[in-house]
Amino acid sequence: MRTQTKISDFIIKIFIWLFTLIAVGALILIVGFVLIKGLPYISWNFIVSPDTGILPMIVTTLIIIPLTLIIAAPIGICSAIYLVEYARPGKIVNLIRFATESLAGIPSIIYGLFGYVFFCLTLGFNYSILSGSLTLSIMVLPTIIRTTEEAIKTVPNSYREGSLALGATKLTTIFKIILPSSISGILTAIILSIGRIVGETAAVIFTLGTVTDMPKNLMSSGRTLATHMYNLAREGTNENAAFATAAVLIIVVALINLSARSVAGQFQKKLHSKK
Amino acid sequence: MVSKKNINAKPLTLIIEKMFFICACISILSLLIITVYLFISGGPPIFKIGFFNFLFGMEWNPEASKFGILPMITSSLLATLGSVIIGVVVGLFVAIFLAEIGPKWLVKPFSFAIELLAGIPSVVFGFFGLIVIVPLIYNNLGQPISGGLSLLAVIIILSIMILPTIINISETSIRAVRKEYKEGSLALGASHIQTIFKVLIPAAKSGIFTGIVLGIGRAIGETMAVILVAGNSVQMPTGILSSVRTLTSNIALEMGYSADLHREALFATGVVLFTFIMILNILLNVFIRNRRAEL
Asked: What is the pLDDT along chain B (295 residues), one digit of tens a residue?
């Protein structure tokens, strides 16, 4: 009986190790393969060449990111403040939570369809940076709300009580005490959102379009790096450029992840030192 | 003095506090607008085509005005089922590794790797599948006519893509199980592995289910990666090596050049997809509530 347990435990342990190595191996394989195939093709020409250069896509991506965040971040942060500091458990809060969870679960192609009908057609923005940013800002809203909420929740209650006891109003407490204390959590939310914006394809392709020109204004159609990558992969004519673009995307995402980690790490440290 | 300040501050305070509330309601508003617009654009065509003809029609041929999406529903469900089975088995074991079995010096880099995996854009997965997995299938599984672009390729790619979701949430909920449970089980003479499978996993089950439902949502909703490896022919899948088209890829492939009833049919496809997702969301809501109650 005893040895039987030992043997079955051993077998299960082997499977646990095996599957873990497979999962981590898959990541190493994908990242390694793309970097090895892609990095050699990243050159000055790959970026600025007038026909095939990715500079317009980089610029478009760099415009879309702040524009989306300017819309989504204030709304998301205010929602989180409401949910943690003001809301009492009840129907409205349940509804807000259900809506946030649902928005997080809606596939990006549905956002693309909706953005196309609502922003491009109904509001008449056509394929443009504006339509793309508005669509993306709804998409990243749940990420910002949830992450900010977690951050605000971790601010110790003694901070609130101390501030209120000193005669500060609730609003002053929020802006002077609670938001500054949860700043790294808010930053994490923003960095995570940037990751989502950079990697998104389906929602962007139907609201921003696929034009390869340098964007002129908010109403210009354009391509982000990820949609460019999709088009290259789909056309299949320039595999090297596709690998190089994939490599750029992976590097950007890895940098975003690392910075999110270090910001979150600082947040943890600060929290512990204060306790 | 204090009371005077409060009175002065009141109108502005009230406005700002109302603003917090309004911002919080934007989520509800967004969800409402999305639902309404999607159903306005995609609801009527379902009845124009015929509810039965649309949902259970076997033929999709826009030129002949035939809009049946049963093959795509089937493909979407099969792809999701396959990837979730693989994703859950592998993901759960990895979560156990990270939470219980793995040595500390490995857990840290591994969980960073899983986090990175979650961040990789879906097009990159699709491209990797197209360049590496599709040829592998073609060369090793009897050179099918689909050229390796197949249900199998979709399942493999999707199961890698949903792994981080399942691992992350399962790991968190296994870690959240009270220490007393584990200690009690070990004190009764159960082995570590027995404790994990008989005590920790049952105790963490609603968290694990949450992870699975989120994984299903991600798998059924994934578009671009699927298009690149699926082959996209509209046909009932006959085996794991058939070329397939999912609901999501149907929309993305034909939106660009569709018009009139064809375009409406694509929105109707979106409505079907959205309905699946909302059912999952409601399920999820139940699991999350159970989970909160358990914690």
From this structure: 444 445 555 788 888 888 899 999 999 999 999 999 999 988 888 888 888 888 888 888 888 778 888 889 999 999 999 999 999 999 999 999 988 888 888 888 888 888 888 888 889 999 999 989 988 888 888 777 777 888 899 999 999 999 988 998 888 888 888 888 888 888 888 888 888 888 888 888 888 888 888 899 889 989 989 999 988 888 888 888 888 999 999 998 888 788 788 888 889 999 999 998 989 888 888 877 776 666 5
Of B90, B277, B285, the CB nearest to A23: B90
Q: Where are the domains of chain A?
A: 42-274
Domain count along chain B: 1
CATH number corresponding to A42-274: 1.10.3720.10
Residue B125 lies in a domain: yes
B270 and A20 within 8 Å at the Cβ level: the answer is no
CA distance B46 to B52: 9
Q: Which of B23, B80, B156, B295 is the best mutation test for A, with the most CBs of A within 10 A?
A: B23
Task: Inspect the interface and report whether the beta carbons of A233 and B123 lie closer than 8 Å.
Answer: yes
Look at B248 and A202 and tell me if their CB atoms are within 8 Å: yes
**Which of A81, A110, A233 faces B38 most closely, judged by CB atoms?**
A110
The rounded distance, in Å, linking the Cα atoms of B260 and A253 is 39
CATH of the domain at B170: 1.10.3720.10
Mutation test of the interface with chain A: which of B12, B90, B97, B124, choosing the one with the most A Cβ atoms within 10 A? B124
Short-list B31, B46, B120, B77, CA closest to A106: B31
Residues 6+ apart with CB under 8 A from A49: none
User: Would you say the ipTM is above 0.90?
Assistant: no
Instruction: Tell me, yes or no, whether B1 lies in a domain.
Output: no
Q: Is residue B94 part of a domain?
A: yes
Q: Where are the alpha helices (DSSP H) in A39-107?
A: 44-48, 55-81, 91-105
Q: Which domain holds residue B240?
A: 54-294
User: For residues B251 and B32, is the Cβ–Cβ distance under 8 A?
Assistant: no
B37 with A142: Cβ contact below 8 A:
no
